[in-house]
Amino acid sequence: MTVALSVQDVHVTLGQNHVLKGVSLDAQPGEFVTLLGASGSGKSTLLNVIAGLQGIDRGHVAFDGTNVEKRPPRKRGVGVVFQSYALFPHMTVGENVAFPLRAARRPAAERARVAREMLELVQLGELIDRRPAQLSGGQRQRVALARALAASPGILLLDEPMAALDKQLREQMQVEVTRIQRQVGITTVSVTHDQAEAMTMSDRVAVMRDGCFVQIDTPENIYRKPATEYVARFVGEANLFPARDGELLLDGVTDGRTGTAVIRPEDLRVLTETEPAGAWSVSGVVRLLSFQGSRFRLEVVSDAGGRVVCSLPPQTDAATLLDGSRVRLGCAHPDRVHVIAATADDVQEDDAQELVVA
Ligand SMILES: Nc1ncnc2c1ncn2[C@@H]1O[C@H](COP(=O)(O)OP(=O)(O)OP(=O)(O)O)[C@@H](O)[C@H]1O
Hints:
Elements: E1 5-14, E2 17-27, E3 32-37, H1 43-51, E4 58-63, E5 66-67, E6 78-81, H2 93-103, H3 108-121, H4 137-150, E7 155-159, H5 167-184, E8 187-192, H6 195-201, E9 204-209, E10 212-217, H7 219-224, H8 229-234, E11 239-243, E12 259-263, E13 268-271, E14 282-291, E15 296-302, E16 307-312, E17 326-331, E18 338-341
Parallel strand pairs: 3-8, 3-9, 6-7, 7-8
Antiparallel strand pairs: 1-2, 1-4, 4-5, 9-10, 11-12, 12-18, 13-17, 14-15, 14-17, 15-16
Helix pairs in contact: 2-3, 2-4, 3-4
The protein binds adenosine-5'-triphosphate.
GO molecular function: ATP binding; ATP hydrolysis activity; transmembrane transporter activity
InterPro entries: AAA+_ATPase (IPR003593), ABC_SmlMolc_Importer (IPR050093), ABC_transporter-like_ATP-bd (IPR003439), ABC_transporter-like_CS (IPR017871), Mo/tungstate-bd_C_term_dom (IPR008995), P-loop_NTPase (IPR027417), Transp-assoc_OB_typ2 (IPR013611)
Domain ABC transporter: 5-235
């Protein structure tokens, strides 16, 4: 199968900044790939490169196996939803959606038919005659999506599509946009710095840092098997412990693997006073127990001075975990402990906490 989108060794310099430093990414037909990274990591620049809005110093960009570096944006067959939605205020919803077809000089009957179809797809058929100012934020976003899909593009690009929405609406729209993307089956590249959004919507997540990809993988692998400490910290909360051969740190949990062990908060548990520790435990003092609706979040200062975060089930007896009380934490799922090899680029041993062996 031909890859729908191929970005190979792309470099971009803006002013004095080497903004993209040789990034490579393939997307399969129908795949939803999210570029996730901190502000300034180069996500929008890469999206603009794919759209043809940003030139490249070197490298290749191909759609369905054909190089497109020299193709102008309007001939690339790309639909874009911008963060601002960029709807035309003086046009109706229907005219907005049909705009790409008008620009392509398609006949009026076809424009009207496609506008209706696209608005049905995003479940806004009844709002076809309204103006953008008469719509809610979520509705505007759906109109922008309908417009981006109207000319049957080969690739859909979403630039921080949820950024303008409040949390509840953002979560609804994540599900809605994913439904539409799957229904249409369009290859999609989205940009976000919201890790929850990336995890919810994507087939694969490409984590960017400083103009490079650190890891491109499924959401589950990004969370469970982060390639570097940066990824472990950027996606969800992570407890990082040094795991070194021969020092018995995390003995029985890391199987002799060397590097930095990543233990997610939900994989730790509170041991009772009499309970044997198993292979190992961390002792410390409760700093704060907070109720978060479906879980408790327990923050402990270990005796070695590190911060350990634990996510506990709702039936936890909060009275036993008052601020300042002593606790021992054990590992609830040793099989899930992931070790980042010591050779990974960004292992910063000083950051990892000491673990107390039982
Ligand atoms: N015209 C420009 N001249 C010089 N540097 C630029 C220019 N445009 C962007 N940059 C720099 O390029 C880097 C990447 O910018 P980009 O907008 O791609 O990042 P981003 O990951 O999308 O960030 P954000 O999440 O804040 O949008 C940043 O350091 C930015 O300051």
